[in-house]
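Ticket 4471: requesting a sanity check on a complex prediction with adenosine-5'-triphosphate. Repro inputs:
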Amino acid sequence: MTTTTDTILHVAQVSKRFGGLQALSDVGITIHRGQVYGLIGPNGAGKTTFFNVITGLYTPDAGTFELEGRAYRPTAVHQVAKAGIARTFQNIRLFSDMTALENVQVGRHIRTHSGLVGAVFRTGSFKAEEAAIEHRARELLEYVGIARFADYKARTLSYGDQRRLEIARALATDPKLIALDEPAAGMNATEKVVLRELIDRIRKDGRTILLIEHDVKLVMGLCDRVTVLDYGKQIAEGTPADVQKNEKVIEAYLGASHTAH
Ligand SMILES: Nc1ncnc2c1ncn2[C@@H]1O[C@H](COP(=O)(O)OP(=O)(O)OP(=O)(O)O)[C@@H](O)[C@H]1O
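Returned structure tokens:
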């Protein structure tokens, strides 16, 4: 394998079939520490399927998976989260009747130690840990720019703010890799600028990011490297500048998007 100490995620030869449909064929990516890595392609290309496979939501038919040089089996979402991959969803999945703060606290709980006994008996260490979790959750709400909504129910937040809340919840797990599934979907131009700044800041603060995004401008401006999928096949991989020049890509995706944007 071609992993180095600077490799966060190395995934190779991933295939996934749904009945008669080959949704992914031999797809592989290597993401280095501190990169923003983009996954693009037309509708139905297999981007979400790939995300779902590496985060344990779908069982792959084939593939090898390494996180920081260690093999991991993406068989269950909570195990993948514990291993260090956190994600957001294209269709927001917050606990809508819980407050923004509580949603982030839930994310943080996978990194706690007191466990059930501590929770039942409310031991000193449990209470200290709870206070630390709340403190960290408030910091993260501030970080993504929605601290003022800490006590609002998640469902009352605007669409853009719910997306930011999902990012805060994902960051609460202290991930080695944060996977964002179409974070700009449904956002207006102003919200996209703020989102871009946030993703840039997350990277500057030392995180590694995998991004599915339809907004070509955003992808090209943010990503260090990009993989392009089309009908489940990887048709190009490289820097945004390289990928933009690739004829297969222009045909499959960018050509259409350039006229659309
Ligand atoms: N659970 C499933 N069962 C059957 N087919 C599926 C399932 N999930 C995805 N597919 C099919 O696999 C193909 C790839 O879909 P996928 O959602 O991964 O594409 P995508 O690139 O994320 O598209 P979009 O940009 O529209 O979100 C599509 O043809 C889709 O219909």
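Notes from triage: The radius of gyration is 19 Å. Leaving this open until the requester confirms.
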